[in-house]
Write a structure and sequence with these properties.
binds coenzyme A, 12 strands, alpha+beta, globular, 12 helices, two-stranded antiparallel ribbon, 10-stranded mixed sheet
């Protein structure tokens, strides 16, 4: 099989649902700017070279419906010949899109393609505009339809991940993200115009616009004491809070992939290759355990061990499930691998979704952009991204730096 090269991987900032900078900005506009960013950072490449665009989205309806992969191709002025599709593997959608496009390149079915992900959790909140659980399945397996917060509570209770561990993890996530922001480490961010529509006293609507270039959910003032005081968000006597859960976020990300022939033809310098991708199924009522199974399966496929991997991006849907997965991988007790301030850290080095947000359908592409950017920055050969997936799954991908 051929190699699939990641030539550019970018993301918009992640901004808080409802109260954040993108709450009045349509998801197509987020995608528009991040996809145009790929071309700004790949001089000499013309949009007519792109054969297909696949976009991950968890709730592909309303503003992000009608096959946003094709909508964005037309909106961003690709030629009519550039096709487009939408894929949904819930929180792995933005990674599924990369894998789908990479496999097309690897099999010889395409030369230049774009993958990505998008979610406006403001405009299309979980669980979509018109949820319609199947009545028989809802009786037989109610856990398929429960809140993700309850699945995080299940993991915490079942595997003794106590509140202190969750808050401690979350504190470090916030501090790592704040440090990275301060030191301008998120080089993969594309600035995006953010709209605000304001009703004037005479009833007319005024549009204001500002350029957004930072993740707006990071809380640099986070303390362990502050986190400890928060009330449980999902269950009266629970341990999962607003402070140790991922934030609901609006955002988009995009990845440009090419074959080696295209890399040579356009004279570009790729960042990384997608080596392997895998998905596993787990019990939906503890969907957060997914990475604990997906990562070992991935490593086996690649014939590598955890020690070979220099950077991990493990999506922090909730601190409870992230900690459980790291325990299973025997990485949690090695706190120097993830604590803020540790020079040896290699897991979520710049914080995770607890601080930076989790724009669900976008997250897989967003983490790929963060991971490959840091692999390049630090000269790390192998990086893994992994996430748990609603409905009971885990996904994981291995990237290899192009030296
Ligand atoms: C947990 C959840 C319900 C909280 O939503 P929310 O109430 O809108 O969250 P907020 O960010 O407003 O936080 C609530 C309050 O907690 C406190 N808080 C949150 N993070 C904090 C921190 N790091 N330090 C101190 N206080 C914090 C604040 O007081 C905040 O209120 P304020 O911003 O007005 O001061 C929501 O984030 C959620 O559902 N997350 C999971 C999403 C999900 O399921 N995704 C799919 C995963 S598979």
């Amino acid at each position: 099989m051929r190699d699939a090269y990641i030539v550019s991987a970018l993301r918009t900032p992640g901004c808080k649902k409802d109260r954040g900078a993108f709450s009045h900005t349509r998801p197509e506009d987020l995608l528009y700017h991040v996809i145009n960013g790929l071309f700004e950072r790949t001089p000499g490449l013309n949009k007519k070279e792109v054969e297909d665009i696949v976009i991950g989205c968890c709730f592909p309806e309303a503003e992000q419906g009608l096959n946003i992969g094709r909508i964005i191709a037309l909106m961003a002025k690709f030629p009519d010949e550039t096709s487009g599709a939408t894929v949904n593997r819930f929180c792995a959608s933005g990674l599924e899109s990369i894998a789908t496009q990479a496999m097309r390149v690897m099999s010889g079915w395409a030369e230049v393609v774009i993958a990505g992900g998008v979610e406006s959790m403001t405009m299309v909140p979980i669980p979509g505009k018109l949820p319609r659980p199947h009545p028989d399945l809802a009786k037989e397996r109610a856990e398929v339809y429960i809140s993700m917060g309850i699945t995080a509570e299940n993991v915490a209770k079942r595997y003794n991940i106590n509140r202190q561990m969750q808050d401690e993890w979350s504190y470090h996530s916030q501090i790592k993200a704040a440090d990275a922001q301060k030191n301008n480490l998120f080089k993969e961010i594309v600035s995006v115009p953010a709209n605000k529509y304001i009703e004037e006293p005479d009833g007319t609507i005024k549009r204001e616009m500002q350029i957004q270039n930072v993740d707006d959910g990071v809380r640099p003032d986070t303390t362990l004491e502050g986190l400890t005081k928060l009330k449980p968000a999902f269950a009266a006597a629970g341990t999962v809070t607003a402070g140790n859960s991922s934030q609901m976020t609006d955002g988009a990300a995009a990845v440009l992939l090419m074959s080696s022939e295209a890399v040579n033809k356009f004279g570009v310098k790729p960042i990384a290759k997608l080596k392997c991708y895998t998905v596993v199924g787990v019990n939906p009522d503890e969907m957060g355990v997914g990475p604990a199974y997906a990562i070992p399966k991935l490593l086996k496929m690649a014939n590598l061990t955890l020690d070979d991997v220099g950077l991990f991006e493990i999506n922090e849907a909730f601190a409870s499930q992230t900690i459980y997965c790291l325990q299973k991988l025997d990485l949690y007790d090695k706190k120097e691998l993830w604590e803020s301030g540790s020079s040896k850290r290699k897991i979520n080095v710049n914080g995770g979704a607890i601080a930076l947000g989790h724009p669900i359908g976008c997250t897989g592409s967003k983490l790929a952009a963060q991971l490959t950017n840091m692999m390049k920055e630090k000269g790390v050969k192998y990086g893994i991204e992994s996430m748990c997936v609603g409905g009971g799954m885990g996904a994981a991908a291995l990237f290899e730096l192009v030296e």
